[in-house]
Amino acid sequence: MTEVSRRTFLAGTAGSTAAGLAGAALAAGGVTRVNAQAPRSAQLPAASPAPAGARPIPSAYRYKVGQVQVTAIADGMRTIPLSDSFVRNQPKAQVNAALKAAFLPENEISIPFTVLLLDMGGRLVLVDTGNGPGQGPVGQLAATMRAIGVDPAQVDQVVISHFHGDHINGLLTAEGTPAFPKAQLMVPEREWAFWMDEGQMSRAPEAMKGSFQNVRRVFKPFEGKVERYAWDKEVAPGLTAVGTPGHTPGHTSFALDSDFETLFIQSDITNIPSLFVRNPSWQLMFDMDPAAAAEVRRNTYDRLAAERMMVAGYHFPFPGAAYLDKDGDGFAYVPVLWRPAL
Amino acid sequence: MTEVSRRTFLAGTAGSTAAGLAGAALAAGGVTRVNAQAPRSAQLPAASPAPAGARPIPSAYRYKVGQVQVTAIADGMRTIPLSDSFVRNQPKAQVNAALKAAFLPENEISIPFTVLLLDMGGRLVLVDTGNGPGQGPVGQLAATMRAIGVDPAQVDQVVISHFHGDHINGLLTAEGTPAFPKAQLMVPEREWAFWMDEGQMSRAPEAMKGSFQNVRRVFKPFEGKVERYAWDKEVAPGLTAVGTPGHTPGHTSFALDSDFETLFIQSDITNIPSLFVRNPSWQLMFDMDPAAAAEVRRNTYDRLAAERMMVAGYHFPFPGAAYLDKDGDGFAYVPVLWRPAL
């Protein structure tokens, strides 16, 4: 180290210069929260508008799985207060500790929604459809598709993983017409059988009746045109439906195989990874059969880790593709490396 | 668990259905590499063109630090074979083990380049400039800026961290004229003093002489207009230069402070995190004073981890912003959560 650099370095180490590494906050020590230091920036105008001509940046990312071009398209992100019941079998303090360990804000949960568009040699297959229009920070799928130059009318096939609103509501436009007018619509037969059963609806707790009604509302415009697929069948070339029930009775994941590559599309085997990949036995309030969901989760992740297989998650941080590694009693989440070009 | 779901789940567990979770590969077991399973996809056309009308997706991401709007803009990524000397003080086998642990391909290194555009209440400040035009998979800065609606001519100020070609070559267009014609150009005075010194150039090893000549080539069109800044000074409102020498003699990082938030812009305190954040004592071949670089790295990261401060790295995986957490003798790299909207 030269004398010059040593002087600067030591000055920084001792915290003796107010303008050293991040200034007074670091010198003071003991500050453990992000953003806790005193403000020291020069005053800027209150508004920080986008530069003239700047366009919103679409949250979309392309990668390849063998010959298939996968585009991860953000439908948006919803931030909700952390309720006592968000994780059924953990106290809120424990959940907050996990959020903090992941460098996420405490007392709130930010849930991303990422839809996959698969280009199979020109055939466009969409897996799930987002929250639908008019939902504030979410429901952005169609707009983001258009921003990257894909017209929803080009989609050849829509494959649904399960019938929660954040996966099916995007099937309709704000006017209630099919959002992907040309697309063949495929849904899990077990999911259809459960939600369309009048007995199940009548026996359901009051809080769940809205979900049954929503399913009927969404699929009504497709009457007679909904193709029901069985688990373990190919629903598109190289795209195999994998039964992973628990989150819902007919909850389905997919294995996308092309050439020598596989992507496991997990759908909602878990929600945000900082909580549930890290701690696979934690039970999400939205899991209809929490014990079954936890068992499916642990067994699936054991295999993904052992096989070092890439996995895409609907609620994983955008772009939502990762590898899972065994780590103690849970799993470490390793995002794929972002490649700016295919 | 219902009978139905149990049946499917058990079928998957036993690997008794060829089309279960990821098919035969998982059933066979013992396959430990990604993409190692036999192909089972239906044949697709050889080419997988972008869907009609699809545009390339710019790799750009916006986030806020206090009142400052930060746009991470990918200049591209370069993949090079892993040489024996890429990490000076580790055998290649050890480096490959670290790559594998990070779920990255062995025997190659993919290095991303991410430039930051800071919008300070309408004033646009660019930190570094990328590899410059005509560099194949890199040198994409200007094109990506235009794709998100920012004209390089709008940039008010360019601040350079150090004089390696991947940071300064983007100052010029393919025609050799200033790429950001309106911008005030600021460089570290210590970096300027080192690289512009004729004695240093004449004493430099032959392999380094090209770097000295490149510095002269790049700055020639700016003769008399290059403003040299000192460490520990504000170079723009809230943007303080922090001396972090070792990678180069005048290598500079920045602390961006606005309201109660701070982003530490580390520049090249380290290269890719899977190797050097994980193992801060590993020495990169491009570090001119490896021992000084390692010392600066460890001390800086100790502080960033203790303060839980966000850090942006020029060679970090896009979008290149993260938190660092102490983890054994090294640090864990925790990418920031991607937020689709500001």
Description:
The structure is a homodimer of 342-residue chains. Chain A is α/β, with parallel strands linked by helices and 342 residues long. Chain A has a single domain (60-335), classed as Ribonuclease Z/Hydroxyacylglutathione hydrolase-like (Metallo-beta-lactamase, Chain A), CATH 3.60.15.10. Helix content of chain A is 25%, strand content 26%. Chain A contains ten helices and 14 strands. Chain A has helices at residues 3-14, 24-28, 92-101, 141-147, 165-168, 189-195, 198-203, 206-219, 273-276, 290-307; strands at residues 60-65, 68-81, 108-120, 123-127, 157-159, 184-188, 226-229, 234-236, 239-243, 252-258, 261-267, 310-313, 321-327, 330-335. In chain A, the strands form two sheets. A seven-stranded mixed sheet of chain A has the order 1-2-3-4-5-6-7. The longest helix of chain A has 18 residues, at 290-307. Chain A is globular and about 45 Å long. Chains A and B meet through helix 1, strand 1, strand 2, strand 3 and strand 9 of A and helix 1, strand 1, strand 2, strand 3 and strand 9 of B.
